[in-house]
Design a protein that fits this description.
Shape: elongated
Structural class: mainly beta
Radius of gyration: 19 Å
Oligomer: single chain
Helix content: 10-25%
Largest sheet: 3 strands, antiparallel
Order of helices and strands: EEHEEEEEHEE
Number of strands: 9
Strand content: 25-35%
Distance between the termini: 30 Å
Length: 137
């Protein structure tokens, strides 16, 4: 099964649909994104060029709300520093590393002991600092 993201004019993923791989196969048995796009346009009416095949090309999975970056061929997750009101730490996209970078800098490196204990750093907006946190799972 192939995952296709339905994107709007701002390249934001609105929904994700699965398409049977056989819908993508050309006459030589090679998967073609354009065939999946045409199939989805035919059954949904949404323009073919606004369906993006996520074939695992990026470091981030395609999810509803993520942004398709056609120039760099990746899906960007939502800005991790923003809350529902648009407040929080400012982050910027590091294109070469394909990840969000907080403007305050990365959290401290975890020690091996902290990694073994499933700890991680979480930004504390109130204190404006990283807090070492225990993973509850």
């Amino acid at each position: 099964m192939a995952n296709f993201g339905k994107i709007n004019e701002a390249n934001v993923v609105l929904s994700v649909l699965k398409v049977d791989d056989k819908q993508l196969l050309d006459g030589d048995g090679v998967k073609q994104e354009s065939l999946g796009q045409a199939f989805l346009e035919n059954i949904t009416g949404w323009p073919a060029n606004q369906w993006i095949w996520d074939y695992g090309q990026g470091t981030h999975p395609m999810v509803i709300g993520s942004e398709w970056d056609s120039a760099n061929q990746i899906f960007w997750p939502l800005d991790p520093g923003m809350d529902a009101n648009g407040a929080g730490v400012c982050w910027h996209k590091d294109i070469p590393e394909k990840r969000w970078i907080p403007d305050v800098g990365d959290p401290p490196e975890l020690t091996q002991e902290e990694k073994d204990q499933n700890k991680y750093y979480l930004w504390n907006e109130q204190d404006q600092n990283y807090k070492l946190t225990q993973n509850p799972y």
